[in-house]
What we know:
It is a single chain. The protein is mainly beta. The protein has three domains: about 1-60, SH3 type barrels; about 65-125, CATH 2.40.50.140; about 130-185, CATH 2.40.50.140. The chain has strands spanning about 1-5, 10-15, 20-30, 35-45, 50-55, 60, 65-75, 80-85, 90-95, 110-115, 120-125, 130-135, 150-155, 160-165, 170-175, 180-185. Keywords: Cytoplasm, Elongation factor, Protein biosynthesis. Its main location: cytoplasm. One of its GO terms (cellular component) is cytosol.
Amino acid sequence: MASTSDIRKGLCIKYNHDIYKIIEFLHVKPGKGPAFVRTKLKSVTSGKVVDNTFSAGHKIEDVRVETRSYQFLYNDGETYHFMNTDDYTQIALQKDALDASDLLKESEVVTIIFNAEDNNPLSVEMPTSVVLEVTHTEPGVKGNTATNATKPATVETGATINVPLFINEGDRIKIDTEKAAYLERAKE
């Protein structure tokens, strides 16, 4: 048993007869009244996201998990196939188990979280950033740089990311997988 002081991003807990992963949390100590923790939970079975508030000191039942490295092989529609980098066994997961499936390219190494009790996969953790090539973007308008101007760009996985005006087709860019946002031009 854990308490609200143990809440952190990525923690898997049992809540309402299901297993949820904490994707956001905020400890709040108002000037008047007791402290509480505001959380955003994602169901690992259905992918449904719910908001919940726990009072300070509330007991939560955490799930013991194991993490393993897997390499993304390919997807066929809604099913994504991964290979264990240690023993080369393969597993297939549904698209809703992934947080940023549109930023996942073949041969990318991800971390898959497994329930230690029954060895079922719970979720897929993407790397903090990925480097992808821009396949399509409109040319930037010269002189339109008074503000932080951006334009949409399509990357090799098919995702659309807002990038600065100086990015051109063929450039490799670093993308934050959590926010699906441009970080910087990739260093070769």
